[in-house]
Amino acid sequence: MRALTLLCILSLLSLAVLAQPVLHFLEQDMQRAVTSAALIPGGRLLACLADGTCQILNSTGGVEWSHVFVGGPVERILAAGSLAYLIDSAGTLHILNVSSPGSVSSKRLLKQGEIGVSNAVISGDGRFLVLVARYYYDASSRYPLDRLVVYDADKGARVYERDAFSSAVLVRVFSLDVWESFLIAETLNTSCHLCELTDNVIEVYRLGSRVQKISERQTGLSRVKGVSKGYLLVQRALDNSLLLLSLPDLKLVAEKRDAPPMRQVLPLVDGFLMVSEEYDLWRCSFTLDCRKLASLPPRSLVTRLASYLVVFSIPEVQVFSLEGDRVVRLARYDVRWDTAPSPPSLAFPGEDSAAALYPSRKLAWLKLLDRSKLLVRVLDPDGRPVADAIVRVFSENYFKIVTSGSRGEVVLEVKPDNYIVEVIKEGYSPWSATVKVDTPFYNLTAVLSRVVLRRGLVSIRVLDVKGNPIPGALVSFEGASAATARTDEQGYASVELPTGEYLVEVRAPGYRSGKVGLRVDVGGVNATVVLEPQVSWVSFVVEGGGPVGVEISSGAVSTRLNVSGKLTVSLERGLYSFYFQAPGYTCRSNVSSPVFLSGDANITVKVVCERAELPRTSSAEHVVRELSSRVLSSRELNVRIGSLQAVLVNGSVVDLAALSSDKTVVVEFFYTQCSGCRDILPTLRRTSAMNNTLVVSLTVSPLDDNVVLSGYIRENNVTWLVGWPSSSGILRSLNITSYPTVVVLRGGEVVFVGIGAKPEEQAHDGASPIPEVKLPSVLSPLTELYTPATLITVGLLLSVIALLVGGGHAEEEAKDSIPGDTTFVLTLDDSLRGFNSEAISQHAAKENSTLWESWEE
């Protein structure tokens, strides 16, 4: 109830200040006269002094950077993005990166005969610096002339000059402005002081590597100029008439005669603001419909701060909002004087700031605050820091809970607003305060009072929805004190807490968090929290509509679904494998199995099924026929086996012999580093698409753990089951020593065994040459005699001999027995194997090999 009341008060306070901006006002009296200043990104101010010192000041007045320029004081500062261009009295350009102040690059702008820079502007991208250089026409000249110069900062050279020696004579430059990629200059081509009123010309140049004048208009001397939305507003000094000219062609759009003489022009979205010589504020539209809005203090300067107006005057700084033709004052700040007051001489806007220079040492500026640093210091009655106190800071749109460190301090970055700050520490009375954060740095001290606490034992039991205890759950207590505990094997967590109101939150992996409120008394309290399982939503999307059979497998549990178009299911946290089957089609998805679902994210499984090339059949004969053409050595037989158990990557244990009672089961024995094993993969992929056929790949390598197999599955787009034999006895009972070996089971019997694999491109003709295999360098002494080609040739010759010797018995053998008079075939060590050699070197002819001896019954 207390917190609700505080929030209501906070909401009212927020509404009270909602209409006005949050501003920070700062005055800075510099040690020496300021020769130039400018606002730079971050609400900072770059000021240069008469002794050549330049400093970057932050919004609290602190000096972030300082540098002394020995060539002379900096007279002009031009800012463009993160760069500041400083021009000193000697005509040297200094370029400073204000985002990371460090070294300064300098270059002299003036050439021989030029004596200084009287004016300068910079293009918006910072590339083109336009300046007015002063020079004497000849040695007898008494008055200097102006030279218009465009300097390319990227090239470090001048790209344009115009002066009295040019074909288009230029004598004086009265003003410079930049609009988009254009330069606007007011010039005169004759040395006639009286001619200025009538002969001055406004010119527009296109800036670039080749500067080009594209328009001009004779207007006479202008009082003020301003640019807004592609229009140039000019007031002629001769008759005070206002001219609205389009840019860049300088065509006359509107004209207004008998306007009051103006001293300032500020652009608006829909027109212009002007300050008259009488310090009246006027607003003019683009049709030059002008209206007087208000009267300003005498000798004041006006500038923009975001959407607000800032008026700098001798006694004060005022902030106004412009609402149509109404000017509403939002804030005012007094200007303090230790010396004789003087009016502002320069006002300049920034991205989120506005500043003014009062001659000759005072700087005043306003910063629009969007972030503040809130420092909360927690102390005991003796002034010592209180560590590990809980500090809660909240407002209508903000909530944060932190603990004080060993120094008893908390620093938060917040938006300027009204906040409630609460501090809780066991053994101390609660502390709270409502504060208005309206400065860049706000310091708050909380002094806690000691109290004697009564305690009670709290016992929390955490169960799942089935009533089973959840061990290891994290139980957090927030309220009169704070504590955490974890549940034991029975789901219990107990902790002794000071009496009072608490909010208990319980979190456990795989479950949604649960909360319960309770009151702790001296007698203690018990509570039970039931957590619901955390689920992920899995959407199966079948391209082409379906239907597709989807098997979702996790551990020993499998669920089969039929999906047409789209189906979304919820799955609890765990490791899942997805299998897809559609009669007559080969299906694949964008998700590689197995996939871990954490419960805090949803996934979409896109299934694409393509019509299979082979007839999809449930006949074991078709499976055997397909495999026979793809392996190097094979045998058809009928031998019953008792059990063939495998552990799949999803954790489930299956008996492949039992599964073969109603389907054809194809078992591949392989290992991931077997290069020849990859040649059988296309065949297994086609076989897995056959109707009523199950394909399982079992690795025999102890190095192939779950991570390695998952990578193998993704890399080779394996869409069938993958796992490990339940024991090495399976390999011994089947006498499997070469890889890959493919075994076909049907009705609990082994009906086919194939060894080795032909590359896919060899499968059709069976006559492609076997590639030469290079031996590892460690066996180089043997390479001259035992080369892979030699060993392969020997193996093939022995296979032919075996066929000649033992082949005559093939027709006499019964289907239910395996002969024992087989011919021994030389086997190669794995270290000698290369591409496809695992299968070639270890497999004999189709019907004669010691590999079959163990199949006799």
Automatic annotation (TrEMBL):
The chain crosses the membrane at residues 785-805. It comes from the Archaea. Keywords: Membrane, Transmembrane, Transmembrane helix. Pfam families: CarboxypepD_reg. This is Thioredoxin domain-containing protein. Gene3D superfamilies: Carboxypeptidase-like, regulatory domain (2.60.40.1120), Glutaredoxin (3.40.30.10), YVTN repeat-like/Quinoprotein amine dehydrogenase (2.130.10.10).
